[in-house]
Amino acid sequence: MGFKTGIVGLPNVGKSTLFNALTRTAAAQAANFPFCTIEPNVGEVSVPDARLDVLAGIAASKEIIPARMTFVDIAGLVKGASKGEGLGNQFLANIREVDAIAHVLRCFEDEDVTHVDGRVDPVADAETIETELMLADLESIEKRLQGLSRKVRGGDKDAVQQERLLKAAQAVLEEGRPAREVEVADEDAKAWKMLQLLTTKPVLYVCNVEEDNAGEGNAQSAKVAEMAAAQGAASVVVSAKIEEEISQLDPEEAEMFLSELGLEEAGLDRVIRAGYELLGLQTYFTVGPKEARAWTIRKGTLAPQAAGVIHGDFERGFIRSETVGYDDYVAANGEQGARDAGKLRVEGKGYEVKDGDVLHFLFNA
Fold it and tell me: In the structure, how many helices (H) and strands (E) does the chain have?
């Protein structure tokens, strides 16, 4: 089950530097000129979770396999992208393919790094990109409504539903608000997602600040946090330069470096966790002497579908799951201790998996 978060922003805000640090590669060229990222770079990252190490220690697991997330570094956008300016068409197509957007905003002053608009104003930058995405959605909706008209007149139920949802999105967009603000009924959720509107995707604002402000942020990132709160969105403060330096160090050196800077953890760990939360994801574990592994599922996933993340046969032949909560597993020092203490539960097909559950699935082959 793959989940993609697209890293977007205006040129020269630190997108590719952040991507380099995230994926611990130099795959994305970081340079001081617009459009240095021509093709979207894709990288997988481990989701930081201290619980996995604890579980592996208890079970003496030989291998530790963390959950993974995919990040896509997308070419920089400029005003007019919705009309094809810069790399606009490509930018919009790439965004359509991701599940969420990590919007990198320049919150640092540096005369050596050119800003495409000649000033540092992260809130205005965010509005520029949001406006281009809304304009692109409006254009897409107009074309789709024209294409649906004949089917709607013919009474096609799917077409009628699509038209209703598109018009609801159009009304919100024409008010200058993103389509994600549309209230969608449960019965329309699947059809709504199929519309693939750009402004329905959840957004995380990543404030790229100077090294000295990596811990608490600065006045610019505070403005972004205020904007994000008003939108019901999230924001995270990082220093892309620091994160890139950390990515080149081994774990022990990285810990010492962070300690010297007075930072408790790498900013990228916060970005990854925030992205995980943004997508409505959670983790369950399978633990044994061979391996301790974290598996990613959406919140609200039932046990058979959670089993299906491991293998389709597990879902098709699902019988039951033996379940221990993380805290109970640790307190009982493992599965046998949890079983002896009456903390191991047998759950059926209707069980909604909880974050941190340690699961063992029984199924018919």
Answer: 14, 12
What are the tens digits of pLDDT across the range 261-286?
A: 888 888 888 888 888 888 889 999 99
Q: Could you tell me which residues come within 8 angstroms of residue 94 by beta carbon, excluding any fewer than 6 positions away?
A: 6, 40, 72, 74, 75
Closest residue by Cα to residue 72 from 3, 11, 122: 3
Q: Is residue 328 a contact partner of residue 283, using CB atoms and an 8 Å limit? A: no
Helix (H) / strand (E) element for 271: namely helix 267-278
State what percent of residues in the chain have pLDDT above 90.
49
Between CA 220 and CA 208 the distance in angstroms is 10
Encode pLDDT of 35-46 as tens digits: 334 355 788 888
Helix, strand, or coil here: 35? coil
State how far the Cα of 172 lies from the Cα of 5, in Å rounded to an integer: 24
The tokens describing 8, both together, are 């977007």
Q: What is the DSSP string of 183-197?
A: ---GGGHHHHHHT--
Task: Name, in order, each residue with C-beta under 8 angstroms of 171's C-beta and a sequence gap of 6 or more.
Answer: none
Burial class (CB in 10 A: 0-12, 13-18, 19+), 68: middle
Q: How far apart are CA 249 and CA 247, in angstroms?
A: 6
Backbone angles phi, psi at 349, to 5 degrees: -65, -25
Q: What are phi and psi of 361, to 5 degrees?
A: -95, 140
Sign for the pseudo-dihedral over CA of 222, 224, 226, 228: negative
Residues 150-154: contacts with CB under 8 Å, at least 24 apart: none
Model confidence pLDDT, tens digit, residues 9-29: 888 888 888 888 877 643 433
Closest CA to 52 of 261, 364, 291: 291
352 pairs with which residues across the strands?
A: 302
Quote the tokens at residue 278. 């943004």
